[in-house]
């Protein structure tokens, strides 16, 4: 049970880092086209990892 909890946390963190990595590769114009700014990236990644 504890190991499953730890594995879920690790998986969520890896997902969070992947979203950060992908969004940071976009230019400011591309981010603007999808309606987000660089300041929003952390919150979007956290929300995505929590889902």
Please tell me how large the radius of gyration is.
13 Å
Strand content: under 5%
What do the pLDDT scores average to?
A: 96
Structural class: mainly alpha
Overall geometry: elongated
Helical coverage, percent range: over 70%
Separation, N- and C-terminal Cα atoms: 20 Å
Major β-sheet annotation: none
Number of domains: 1
Strand tally, please? Answer: 0
Instruction: List segments where confidence is low: pLDDT < 50 over at least 5 consecutive residues.
Output: none
Number of helices: 3
The quaternary organization reads as: single chain
- The ordered string of helix (H) and strand (E) elements is HHH
Pfam families: YjiS-like (PF06568)
Protein name: DUF1127 domain-containing protein
Organism: Microvirga terrae
InterPro entries: YjiS-like
How does the SSE layout of this entry go?
Elements: H1 2-24, H2 28-33, H3 41-50
Helix pairs in contact: 1-3
Keywords: Plasmid
Pfam families: YjiS-like
InterPro entries: YjiS-like (IPR009506)
